Amino acid sequence: xxxxxxxxxxxxxxxxxxxxxxxxxxxxxxxxxxxxxxxxxxxxxxxxxxxxxxxxxxxxxxxxxxxxxxxxxx
Length: 74
Prior knowledge:
The protein has helices at 26-39, 41-53, 57-61. It is 43% helix and 0% strand. The termini are far apart. It is mostly helical. It is built from three helices and no strands. Helix 1 runs antiparallel to helix 2 (41-53). The chain is flat, with a radius of gyration of 21 Å.
């Protein structure tokens, strides 16, 4: 596809619906972390990973130890 100067390039792209994502309030986040702390170190670490990095749950589930660089941060 060749786009010439006089053509509007956006006419070649579809329009997509936008969605608003509801995020946790600071209070809700703290409640979740407190509850995870009661459950154990593993659950607390998972929540800190999710909230601290912003990765999605699916990305966290598929995370492998080799994907994590741990040198120089401890």
